Amino acid sequence: MKQAQQKEVKEKHSVEGGLSVEVLYNSTRGKGDPVRASEAILKGLSEDGGLFVPDHIPALDKSLREFSEMDYRQTAYEVMKLFLTDFTEDELKGCIDKAYDSKFDTEAVAPLTEAGGAYYLELFHGATIAFKDMALSILPHLMITAARKNHVKNEIVILTATSGDTGKAALAGFADVEGTRIVVFYPKDGVSPIQEKQMVTQKGANTMVVGIHGNFDDAQTGVKKLFADKELAREMNGKGFQFSSANSINIGRLVPQICYYVYAYAALLREGKISDGEAVNVVVPTGNFGNILAAFYAKNMGLPVGKLICASNDNRVLYDFFRTGTYDRNREFVLTSSPSMDILISSNLERLIYRIAGDDADRTGELMAALSGQGRYDITAEMKDGLEDFYGNYADEAETAAEIRRLYESCGYVLDTHTAVASAVYQKYVRETGDSRRAVIASTASPFKFTRSVMSAIDAKYADASVYGDFQLADELSRIANVAVPRAIEEIRTAPVVHDVQCDADKMKDTVKAFLKL
Ligand SMILES: *Cc1c(COP(=O)(O)O)cnc(C)c1O
Prior knowledge:
Layout lengths: L2 H14 L8 E3 L9 H7 L8 E3 L9 H4 L4 H12 L5 H11 L12 E4 L2 E5 L9 H5 L2 H11 L5 E7 L3 H10 L5 E8 L5 H8 L6 E7 L2 H13 L1 H9 L2 E4 L6 H20 L9 E6 L4 H11 L4 E8 L4 H8 L1 E3 L20 H8 L4 H14 L1 E3 L2 H5 L4 E5 L2 H15 L5 H17 L5 E5 L7 H8 L11 H12 L5 H8 L6 E4 L3 H9 L2
Parallel strand pairs: 4-14, 5-6, 5-8, 6-7, 7-15, 9-10, 9-14, 10-13
Antiparallel strand pairs: 1-2, 3-4, 11-12
The protein binds pyridoxal-5'-phosphate.
Pyridoxal-5'-phosphate (PLP) binds next to helix 13.
């Protein structure tokens, strides 16, 4: 965007919106002109390969008391309006109402449950019973609103490669959203039977699910090729289509995640568990670093957050980074019982790096080039000082299972494996520091999503799949935890398979063209 245009936007906004200031988005790697929120959402990634970052973090403009009287949708509006400053009130409220409705099985949307002295923020009450629903249920609406605002007439075609969970959450979010289509590629023999069933039973005429003969990397590489295919882009444009991406670096996924930390704090205040302004620690089971970055942004907006506790599984690249200041992905990739955290490149960390480098795009670009070249980089002592809000640790497989069992036996509450990693790390943190502030632990998946690992942690007899089938195990979990089997699981018991397309990894382009009738 040109300077003059930028100035015009700022002035226009300050007339219409009173005191608030336009937030513009810069690339972490470039010197290009900043873009508005709607443009950043449409683009996903900056053209120079960098991530979009807000040029400043806006301050909360309602008091914590006021937040304590709001429901989830109101909270979401009050937080998101500060970042998505080129959306009108009607546009943003429209997106929020469509996202956080009866798709969630509780009016609270993200309820807090106290167990064993900590507060678990349950982010798994949406369509696919995992926390990615929190952002992926609103992203489609933000995206088509952004398209309208930027006079894009094309239908948006979302292209995703998935190792299981993200694909289903994206499908559920985009299904039947007018003006969009979604194509999901998954490795035919590389996802769990439940994950596959969840995807191939997906309803919605605008959805397509394809099993490819290859692994996740093949799917991912194929999708990247399609995104970069200029000829295909031209052909699509001629027929009224354009690609976009729903992956976790889109600010349209990051911003909605800030809301639930404000909401959780306000809930503690409402219930008299904390006093106004009292700092609360936040614990996040981390993979791509999106969720915990949202908590960091919430803190920077003025939410009283103490430590940001970053929990890893055996893929402890972030723990090592916080300890040593060296990020090093040259290590064995470990398959764990918390697969959504099995990640060696945490993409969203780039936004924090940019920040601790003093918003220096050149420096950030150098470090990211070192990461893709040598697989590692070192930050300076000065940059490391910028990490003092964070504490990193990890839990191995045995510690994770023990934490599930401990909490179940002491209070009957059952955690999923990812949340259990966070909970175990939190215990380590308290033992190490003696910090007894209240803690909110982000609970990122329902235990019904990872039934085998969860139930085997409670009693080894459940490990035997020939005795306990997947659905039987869900019934058993329902019985011992005294919670109903979630709708997401009930549905796939009987839902008919509606997607049976398979293809070779080198035929992905033909498959997409056939779907779009090109
Ligand atoms: C994606 C995911 C995470 C990791 O979240 P990031 O934002 O990538 O750090 C943790 N738990 C579950 C269940 C997830 O699906």
